[in-house]
Design the sequence.
């Protein structure tokens, strides 16, 4: 056992400053990634919606049957599950995208803008055409437009910040 002196019982000011500096640098790395989480989540949802449309287009051409991609708007947590199950049974498969907090607006080929409150269906035909239009997805100042060409069925996505 070694004797301890009265001066070695605590931390020095320098040691405390080093620990605080390390914590500050760590928080500078963590906080930006937490604030950017919504942007990454929104981007993933837009890519998922676009992928669903492209999948429906390819499936329609390959099978020779019209294929519908459904976009479900979640009004409440409990309603979301039952509505998505209803849409899945209506379609007979899992071609359903659920908004998870993203607001959806639809602009049809006549340029009429409609705020989607429950669901919207986009149908692709075997000849390559579709019901067409533009889906506008928005979340907390971020927006993206998914354009669906009515003649070719091609899907194009554009991101914008408001």
Sequence:
């Amino acid at each position: 056992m070694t004797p301890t002196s009265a001066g070695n019982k605590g931390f020095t000011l320098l040691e405390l400053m080093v620990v605080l500096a390390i914590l500050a640098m760590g928080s500078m790395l963590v906080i930006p990634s937490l604030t950017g989480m919504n942007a990454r989540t929104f981007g993933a949802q837009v890519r998922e919606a676009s992928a669903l449309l492209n999948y429906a287009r390819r499936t329609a051409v390959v099978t020779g049957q019209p294929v519908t991609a459904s976009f479900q708007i979640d009004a409440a947590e409990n309603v979301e599950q039952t509505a998505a199950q209803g849409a899945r049974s209506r379609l007979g498969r899992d071609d359903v995208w659920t908004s998870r907090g993203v607001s959806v607006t639809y602009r049809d080929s006549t340029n009429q803008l409609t705020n989607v409150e429950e669901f919207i269906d986009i149908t692709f035909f075997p000849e390559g055409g579709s019901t067409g239009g533009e889906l506008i997805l928005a979340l907390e100042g971020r927006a993206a437009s998914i354009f669906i060409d009515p003649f070719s069925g091609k899907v194009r996505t554009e991101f914008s910040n408001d």
Residues 37-63 form the longest helix (27 residues). The chain has one domain: 41-161.
